[in-house]
Structures are given as C-alpha cells and as structure tokens.
Amino acid sequence: ELLRVQRGEEARKEKLKHQYKMALQELEQERKAKEEERKAKEAEKKAKEAERKAKEEALQRNEEIQRISVLSLKKAGYSGEEISKMLNIPLTTIESIISI
C-alpha cells in the first residue's frame, strides 16, 4: 500500500514538474515574441527616419541646384520673368533667390 501511495505521489510530482516546465517555456516564448516585436518596431522607426532624412537631403540639394541655376542665369543676363519661364519656378521664388 505504501509503495502504491509513493508511486502516486511521484507521479503527481512529475506531473507538476512537467506543468511547471511547460509554463516556463510558454513564458520564455512570450518574452521572445515581445522582444522580436519591439525590435521590428524599432527597425521600422529607423527606416522611416532614414527615409525622412533622405527626402530632406534631396529637397535641400534640389533647392541648392535651383538657387545656383537662378543665379547663373541672372548673371548671364536673363530677367526674372525669363528665368521663371525657363525653370518653371514662380517669379516670387526667383526674386527671393536674386535678392539674397
């Protein structure tokens, strides 16, 4: 009788150990999933920031090219209206570049 009780106790202990081990594994999987999600969000945020910087740099380069073009054409003797038509830039923009 004692052996049967001991075996039952052992079986319950093993079952509890197994349940505990499974719970730990599940918690670890959840932790890993959350970490992967955090890393993905961070990577997405970095990609958006890099895209924003690239667009900003392209805009600045475009503005600089525009400025140089306007000044070169003005130096070549073209009027603001002529430059505006050639470069398809508003006259107000041409005037603000020339006045600098």
The DSSP helix count reads 3
User: What is the share of helical residues?
Assistant: over 70%
Strand content range:
under 5%
How many E strands? 0
Gap from first CA to last CA: 103 Å
Q: SSE string, helix = H, strand = E?
A: HHH
Class computed from helices, strands and strand pairing: mainly alpha
Q: What radius of gyration results from the CA coordinates? A: 36 Å
- Mean of residue pLDDT values: 95
Instruction: Report the major sheet.
Output: none
* Low-pLDDT regions: none
Cα shape? rod-shaped
Tell me what you see in this structure.
The chain is mainly alpha-helical. Helix content is 90%, strand content 0%. It has three helices and no strands. The protein has helices at 2-75, 80-87, 91-98. Helix 2 (80-87) crosses helix 3. The longest helix has 74 residues, at 2-75. The radius of gyration is 36 Å and the shape is rod-shaped. The model has no long low-confidence stretch (mean pLDDT 95).
Features:
100 residues; mainly alpha; 3 helices
Please give a quick description of this structure.
It contains 3 helices and no strands. The protein has 100 residues and is an all-alpha fold.
Topology:
Blueprint (H helix, E strand, L loop, with lengths): L1 H74 L4 H8 L3 H8 L2
